[in-house]
């Protein structure tokens, strides 16, 4: 490795922090010495109706596989995010909403948010939603998204938020998988000045979801949308006939809170299930530690609530910690590339958390749009979702943060509920591109392909040898798949699917996925999903999809497509396939490169050799490896000769 610049902990951070370096190390020691005491204290940050006495009950082994945290505790998530703040912080702003249109923003106090959540909870009850029922939420980034999530939590319904960029087909698959009876959506969404036809997408999806009996429609743009009598209702017509008080449902800590679908290396997206007590404790604990958060500070996480980052760091973590959280409807470059920083100035944002892809896109626009703003309110910066390249990190640090703000590079996954590895601003010296060290209680381990444990400074596959409260509990409806996906590769351990390097200081550097998952602009996609969309097209005989390094998106989508023999390769079919994938999955899944391939490299047993396809897509031809075992080695020559132009 070349010299890595190290950024020491600023003295004022060490002084003010919840945990300075000594306290961090003490916490790590305490988890070893007294795990029950440590995890009991983590639970104390929540308000319980019945405080748990069973703290941790976990086995990752096949014979008695189970994961339970705080298993006899009783609580309600919405009480923890709302009611308990009312006495002292009822008039504090809970949510600042910044609309897509930069002239519009509104604020909601904790009192107002509480009343809105109760109303929506009562509306859901009136529509027959009961504890344990699933509710699908397909909304733009408006306060009602948080209201809908919390309303479900209040009555014990399990929400499944579907990102507004997903297609009707993707919505339908997610509704069917968890058997939602009710969908909450909006007439339309607005992003970067463009309309997203949310209600029309839901209508299309529901053609294959006969189980949905009710659709609640929030008016966002006031556009006229078709309404199916008996099934579809405008929220504005329902909300005034119910009370703004609603008793919270007492929930067991292990009762489900939400399902969130995420892509894996095989098959259709998995319904990642998170439960009530452990998830909220971990979201709240990590939000406080990683951002060194104190109640009332203005916190902005730019993620959409359709992804896990939005769940844990727009809604649950911040609100559990009595934050003022910003909900932003728009995009980083609308109307101009100064937008993020203007919003920070307007709302005096103190902690700003975004994705490397956004940083890289803004970096490309130069320093001027940043320097046109003040940003004096910002004290701390964060990143999440994909590895950040040191150039982008340094630009973020130097230009956006004026070398004043530490950067927390938080590594985690939908499955982990909230952050597992990250610097703590008052405890950890920073190295650009490294997520540094595990949080107290988190036990990473590197192993080789055979599962041999690797020590010292080395590269390997990243596992976790023990549980933490925010760990997912199952794949909805398929517990066997949960075990097989995460616990069977390296018995007794949770396998993350990520590769990582550990350096001589024990810092971790995530190198990216080692499975067939790709990370495109921070959006997680399974190559298998894109392949299955492609072969759904009439003209396609076979398809293989891999990722390749992309300057802005992190990874781009490279598709090898074998057309049916009666279909001629052409630019028009290429455009058609792009459009097809957009329609099948969603616009963010549109292929970057489509290469027509008369054949794919396969072993004699018919297995596609993805390693070769990855190398060609990466333009790394020096290292194609042994192709002699291929059924038809000549295929590779054709792929190399005709390799696609990357966008
Ligand atoms: C990647 C998003 C490097 C990683 C919270 C992981 C990261 C996947 C980082 C999960 C980071 C997330 N540095 N890589 N700080 N954060 N990743 O489920 O490959 O959408 O496995 O959760 O994103 O993506 P997911």
TrEMBL record:
Gene Ontology MF annotations: acetate-CoA ligase activity; AMP binding; ATP binding; metal ion binding
Residues at which ATP binds: 385-387, 409-414, 498, 513, 524
EC number: 6.2.1.1
Modified residues (N6-acetyllysine): 607
Sorted UniProt keywords: Acetylation, ATP-binding, Ligase, Magnesium, Metal-binding, Nucleotide-binding
Cofactor(s) essential for the protein: Mg(2+)
Binding-site positions, Mg(2+): 535, 537, 540
Protein's GO biological process: acetyl-CoA biosynthetic process from acetate
Binding residue positions for CoA: 191-194, 309, 333, 521, 582
Residue ranges constituting the AMP-dependent synthetase/ligase domain according to the UniProt record: 83-465
Domain named Acetyl-coenzyme A synthetase N-terminal: residues: 24-81
Domain of life according to the entry: Bacteria
TM spans (from-to): none
GO (cellular component) term, any one: cytosol
AMP-binding enzyme C-terminal domain residues: 529-607
Catalytic activity: acetate + ATP + CoA = acetyl-CoA + AMP + diphosphate
UniProt modification remark: Acetylated. Deacetylation by the SIR2-homolog deacetylase activates the enzyme.
Function per UniProt: Catalyzes the conversion of acetate into acetyl-CoA (AcCoA), an essential intermediate at the junction of anabolic and catabolic pathways. AcsA undergoes a two-step reaction. In the first half reaction, AcsA combines acetate with ATP to form acetyl-adenylate (AcAMP) intermediate. In the second half reaction, it can then transfer the acetyl group from AcAMP to the sulfhydryl group of CoA, forming the product AcCoA.
Membership in a protein family: Belongs to the ATP-dependent AMP-binding enzyme family.
Name the record gives this protein: Acetyl-coenzyme A synthetase
Organism: Phenylobacterium soli
Full-sequence portion shown in this chain: 1 to 647 of 781
């Amino acid at each position: 490795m070349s010299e890595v610049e190290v950024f020491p902990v600023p003295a004022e951070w060490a002084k003010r922090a919840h945990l300075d370096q000594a306290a961090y190390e003490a916490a790590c020691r305490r988890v070893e010495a007294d795990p029950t005491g440590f995890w009991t204290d983590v639970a104390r940050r929540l308000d319980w109706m019945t405080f748990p006495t069973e703290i941790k009950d976990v086995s990752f082994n096949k014979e008695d596989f189970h994961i339970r945290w705080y298993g006899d505790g009783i609580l309600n998530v919405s009480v923890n995010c709302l009611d308990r703040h009312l006495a002292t912080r009822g008039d504090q702003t809970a949510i600042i909403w910044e609309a897509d249109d930069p002239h519009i923003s509104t604020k909601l106090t904790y009192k107002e948010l509480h009343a809105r959540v109760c109303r929506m909870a009562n509306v859901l009850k009136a529509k027959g939603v009961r504890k344990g029922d699933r509710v699908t939420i397909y909304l733009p980034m408006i306060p009602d998204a948080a209201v809908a999530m919390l309303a479900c939590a209040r009555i014990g319904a399990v929400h499944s938020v579907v990102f507004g960029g997903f297609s009707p087909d993707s919505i339908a698959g997610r509704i069917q998988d968890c058997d939602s009876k009710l969908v909450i959506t909006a007439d339309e969404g607005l992003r970067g000045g463009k309309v997203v036809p949310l209600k029309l997408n839901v209508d299309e999806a529901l053609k294959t979801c006969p189980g949905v009996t009710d659709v609640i429609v929030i008016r966002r743009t006031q556009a006229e949308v078709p309404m199916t009598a008996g099934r579809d209702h405008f929220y504005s017509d329902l909300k005034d006939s119910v009370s703004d008080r609603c008793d919270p449902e007492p929930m067991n800590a292990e009762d489900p809170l939400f399902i969130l679908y995420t892509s894996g290396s095989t098959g259709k997206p998995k319904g990642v299930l998170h439960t009530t007590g452990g998830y909220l404790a971990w979201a709240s604990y990590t939000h406080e530690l990683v951002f060194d958060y104190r109640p009332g500070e203005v916190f902005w996480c730019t993620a959409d609530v359709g992804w896990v980052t939005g769940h844990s760091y727009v809604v649950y973590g911040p609100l559990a910690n009595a934050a003022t959280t910003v909900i932003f409807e728009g995009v980083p470059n609308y109307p101009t590339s100064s937008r993020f920083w203007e919003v920070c100035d307007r709302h005096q944002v103190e902690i700003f958390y975004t994705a490397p892809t956004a940083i890289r896109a803004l970096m490309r626009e130069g320093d001027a749009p940043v320097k046109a703003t003040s940003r004096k309110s910002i004290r701390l910066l964060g990143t999440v979702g994909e590895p950040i390249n040191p150039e982008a990190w340094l630009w973020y640090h130097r230009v956006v943060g004026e070398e004043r703000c530490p950067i927390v590079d938080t590594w985690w996954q939908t499955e982990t509920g909230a952050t597992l590895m990250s610097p703590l601003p008052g405890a950890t010296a920073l190295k650009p591109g490294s997520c540094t060290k595990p949080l107290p209680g988190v036990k990473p381990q590197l192993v080789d392909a055979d599962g041999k444990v690797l020590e010292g400074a080395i590269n390997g596959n990243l596992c976790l040898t023990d549980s933490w409260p925010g760990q997912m509990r199952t794949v909805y409806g398929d517990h066997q798949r949960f075990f097989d996906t995460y616990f069977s590769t390296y018995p007794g351990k949770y396998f993350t699917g990520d590769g990582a390097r550990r350096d001589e200081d024990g810092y971790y550097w995530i190198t990216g996925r080692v499975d067939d998952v790709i990370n495109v602009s921070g959006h997680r996609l399974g190559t298998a999903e894109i392949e299955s969309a492609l072969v759904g097209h009439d003209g396609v005989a076979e398809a293989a999809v891999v990722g390749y390094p992309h300057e802005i998106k992190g990874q781009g989508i490279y598709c090898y497509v074998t057309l049916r023999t009666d279909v001629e390769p052409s630019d028009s079919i290429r455009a058609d396939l792009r459009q097809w994938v957009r329609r099948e999955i969603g616009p963010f899944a549109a292929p970057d490169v489509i290469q027509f391939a008369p054949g794919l490299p396969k072993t004699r047993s018919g297995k596609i050799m993805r390693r070769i396809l990855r190398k060609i897509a990466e333009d790394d031809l020096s290292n194609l490896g042994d192709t002699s075992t291929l059924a038809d080695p000549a295929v590779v020559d054709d792929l190399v000769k005709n390799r696609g132009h990357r966008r």
